[in-house]
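Re: the pair you flagged

First of the two:
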Amino acid sequence: MKELSELMAKEFSTTQVRAPYTRPMTAKDFEPSENTSIWWLSSAGFLIQSHGTLLMIDPVISMQAGSDENCELGHRLLVPLPIEAADVPRLDAILYTHKDDDHLGPVTASALIRTGGLYAGPAIVVQELERLGVPSSQARAFRIGESFRIGKVEITLTRADHAYPSQHPYGPEDCCGFFIRTPDGTIWCTGDTRLLAEHMQMSGVDVLLLDVSDDPYHFGVENAVKLANRLEQAAIIPHHYGTYHGPEMLPFNGDPNKLAPHITRSENRYRILAPGERYVLKKTNDVQ
């Protein structure tokens, strides 16, 4: 893989890539349907609806008070949010892979309490949610490998290694991904993680939500391509790029277009979505 790594390093530039322009979402997107749909919310966030069951993963969808340019984290947005937390009508679950603020937005987490959804993630995440005011009765911690059901879907926590040096480094149970079984197929959100041997043993993935940020505590582009090609039957939706202004910040600076030439059959299974754009899960991996 050395030649591929060197080629990719040359292909990536310091110019920050902007996500495709946002498609606004409305309450209609939250109405029950007879299929499974996925919307990218920008950054690392997703909405999944499966036959009326509604899940959000790592939503950061609130603005900074008094600003129409900066999100709740203080970062200037490169593209508008597709929907704000205050406009989300209902959810059955809000899933968090870890507690970094670009995944667990504190304003969003508080604003979504009224949706009635169950907050779920590793124990360290649930502790943070309760500190933010989420009622303990509405939050539940799970361990890596544990599964639970929400409506029409089954969710299993998968292992993640995001132990970057910080004041409070993450331990082996502090970060996760989510493997989601729906009536129409499976979705795997890996979370922020370096590539692990067990990731390469995964199978039965119909849609891979692929982190394309080029950062040493994420997959990095070489390993993102390696995983995408290992799961050669999966449709791929790239994320963790093109949302926040920060050309000097590696986690914000992926470019999904640079991965495409190295992904097997990318023309058939690589789907670069705009924030708010709908993808319908089908075994044929057709975008609707």
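Second of the two:
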Amino acid sequence: MRASISADTGRGPGNGIIEIFDAGDVSEPGFTLLRASDGKCLGPRGWQESETLLTPDAWDNDGDSLRLAVGPAVVDEVDNLDAYRISLRGVGSCALAVKSLVYSNIAGGHGMGAGAPLTPPPVASPAPEPEPEPVLESPEPPLAFEEPQAPQQHEAPLEMASKEEGKPGAKAGLVLLLVLAAIAAGVAAWWFLLREPEKAPLPTPPEQTQNADKPQSADQAQPKPGDAGQQGADAAKQPLSPLASAREQLRGQALPDVSLAMAKPLRKADAKPEESDAAFLLLEDAAQKGDAEAMFLVGQFYDPASTLPRGSIPADLTQAKRWYDQALQKGQPQAKAALDTLKEHARALEAKGDAEARSLLQNWQ
């Protein structure tokens, strides 16, 4: 069984098709997706520790291949810089090859009508303005009767003013106003004139602290640029982790011979899980580009009879035979012996009742 995911151009960005060959008759296409770099499973909230069964948006099975339509929840979470494994419920599991995908650039948004209810109040607010106008215009006839009252309205204040001018309290009020004005002027003069000298000492506390701490601040100020440069140099000297180096290689031209040369030193008996995962990413890319030795080494990762560390890549009889077969067709001399050993291992598993081993041996060629 083999599987791949590619872009679904008919449904647009963020949609894809998972195609699984040799899946057989499937009635419920629930599946799980495992990421090789950290062993996490894909769930509704992204990659998580617990295993979650996913369901496709749509599916069909023509006998030769099972096609699962998936959306951004799956497409946006995978890339060709990592290795993945898909498991079908009740059928089995295999590696998932990531082909060209078109990722979704929609990260949510705001409804266009969200601000619509806020617009009526500004439009309705000027509406009351024309209403008072007719009210002001309606009493035009009484204006003629109000004309004689206009002089009385002006004369009343004049009489009151003339009366107040004759009172001694009015003069006292003027004097009080003048005194208050003089006080206000004095306060303003103090604020603008006498307060200015106080502004000069304001910067003195920082200057005094700088002068007091001159030996310490000078020592601290000089090494700062050097420290930053030293830190940058130290960071530049630090080598990338094996997994980061592998991903950096795959982001470039990723020539098969270069990837193979980077991966082979990582295939050792005491390899750490991260080293094994990095080697698998490099070898799988080189194998997909036709390198025979890389095909053989990828087969070793899946070969349950191999004693070399495989990191987060689970053993898979079908995948091991597939890659060994391709390596043999490309002329890799070690592939024939590996196939013979794999066949003997499959027979031992069949004797123990392993269904996958029995199916593999029935179709062995």
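The mean pLDDT is 76.

-B.
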